[in-house]
Amino acid sequence: MRKAIFVALSVLALGTIFRADPAAAASLGYYEVHGVEDDDMLKMRAGPGIGYKVIVGLPNGTVLRVQDCQQTGGTRWCRVTLKQARGLMGHVSWAYLRKK
Question: For residue 15, how far is the Cα from the chain centroid?
């Protein structure tokens, strides 16, 4: 009985120490738009591909929170939100992101 209680308390303590923050676990972190030509913008699209509607153009330096990414054809597309406007969500090409 004592051993079972000790094991249960140990598991509970380790779970508390090493638990992932749900908000952090739901995202890959913050990235910024990088490598877009000076006279152009990265297109945030409604879905993961060039066939989807463009929501907004993003200049270099725009900070995004990357939620997740998926490979579609030859491009890795990431579902993102704007850091300053988290309600605005869309997809951008991974090729134009760098870790913030």
Answer: 25
Residue 44 Cα to chain centre, angstroms: 14
Q: How far apart are the first and last CA of the chain?
A: 50
Question: Which residues 6+ apart lie within 8 Å of 70 measured at CB?
Answer: 48, 76, 77
Q: Where are any strands of DSSP class E within 1-100?
A: 29-33, 42-45, 54-58, 63-72, 75-82, 89-93, 97-99
Helix runs in 1-100, H state only: 2-18, 22-25
Enter the pTM of the model: 0.72
The letter for the amino acid at 1 is: M
**Tens digits of residue pLDDT in 43-81:** 999 999 999 999 999 999 999 999 999 999 999 999 999
Q: Is 38 helix (H, G, I), strand (E, B) or coil?
A: coil
